[in-house]
Amino acid sequence: MPAEPAFVIVGASLAGAKAAETLREEGFDGAVVLIGTEDQYPYERPPLSKGYLLGKDARESVFVLDDGWYAEHGVDLRRGATVTSIDRADRRVSLADGESVPYDRLLITTGASPRRLSVPGADLDGVLYLRTLADSERLGAALRGGGSVVIAGGGWIGLETAAAAREYGCEVTIVEPEPGVLRGSLGPELGEVFADLHRSHGVTFRFGEGLSELTGSGGAVTGAVTSSGAELDASIAIIAVGVTPNVGLAADAGLDVDNGIVVSEALRTSDPDIFAAGDVANAFNTLLGRRIRVEHWGNALAGGPLAARSMLGQDVTYDWVPYFFSDQYDLGMEVAGLPDPGSYDEVVYRGDKDSLEFISFWLSDRAVVAGMNVNVWDVNDGIQALIRSGVTVDPDRLADPDIPLTDL
Ligand SMILES: Cc1cc2nc3c(=O)[nH]c(=O)nc-3n(C[C@H](O)[C@H](O)[C@H](O)COP(=O)(O)OP(=O)(O)OC[C@H]3O[C@@H](n4cnc5c(N)ncnc54)[C@H](O)[C@@H]3O)c2cc1C
Q1: Is the pTM of this model over 0.90?
Q2: Ligand 1 atom having least distance to the Cα of 95
Q3: Separation of CA 398 and ligand 1 centre (Å)
Q4: Pairwise CA distance, residues 36 & 109, whole Å
Q5: What are 113-133's pLDDT values in tens digits?
Q6: Ligand 1 centroid – CA 47 distance (Å)
């Protein structure tokens, strides 16, 4: 590389902005170009379905860095700019406006996009998705008007928007093809805690059903039909059926792609000068001994900086303990690890599950593989340490709130 190489980052959100910040913190003084499709300064998405959607968080609070930071640190932030292709032979990226930007090392942090639902009526007004700041503002304005909300999908976005809709006084029905919520991410035991929470706040579930049609009048949604033929009133339909990683650029450039951009434990793609992090990366996690692609805020927060250090030639390892959080009504929780079905053979509770103040631990052969603290705070680091240690534990001691996690 030349004395002052150019690093280009495609995707100006959490992972991309944190990578740019780390490059400067590490003393890199070559060119840093951060390119993002959105017009906004890089922002964090969790408030978009929580405090910001509810009008409780100020708009300024969602941004990753102060607006002035980029110019002050010589980071060339290109907002409203979309990269259309990567020329690996020439080491350039092309932008939609025809410009091309050279790179010595490239980081792809293009994230993920909501899966669209292609049923009749899906393009009616009032059929909404939630990924961007503008989406959140549109949804907030709609919810403020009250009415009947039908949500397709009982995942995290579906549940968090359900909680917001209930706080705005809307009637809420969640249509979910699985027999419960959050089965894939928490398993049936803990998924049920969230279903009960929502039921206690007046949310109706239609499990085992999908959304098969949206009906409307005058171009606006007025109803939804489920796969069982049930007809529901709907002045708003929220489509929350998951996301797909934005891998198009990488695939077109011939990089290895398999459920995300395939990267090593150093977040390096199949091209040694191209890296990927955040929601778009399917990265080899050395702690878990397998590749993971997660859509977690904490992963972008940790992965962006890790990729930046890797670009600088530092010896880095992606051994991050997966971490996720959610807030719904007055329940706040954090999960460490990946408690997906098949990864555990036992669930142990510390505290009373029904009181919604407890820790759940998922065990495999008596080793803690994941843990969730619900309305209990300052324990997630301890849970992460248990996961990291891999030690076997006595379930009775694990359940005993008088025994510190460090003494197991
Ligand atoms: C509403 C909402 C609530 C969430 N709440 C939580 C939560 O409570 N807890 C949690 O752990 N996680 C949460 N998440 C997930 C978390 O926000 C994501 O994991 C995180 O945003 C991933 O960051 P990223 O930088 O990898 O990608 P993204 O945030 O997806 O950003 C990628 C950026 O790249 C841009 N881009 C894509 N293609 C191009 C291109 N060709 N050229 C230029 N730019 C491009 C996109 O426009 C986008 O701005 C939530 C997500 C959403 C949408």
Answers
A1: yes
A2: 42
A3: 35
A4: 9
A5: 999 999 999 999 999 999 999
A6: 12
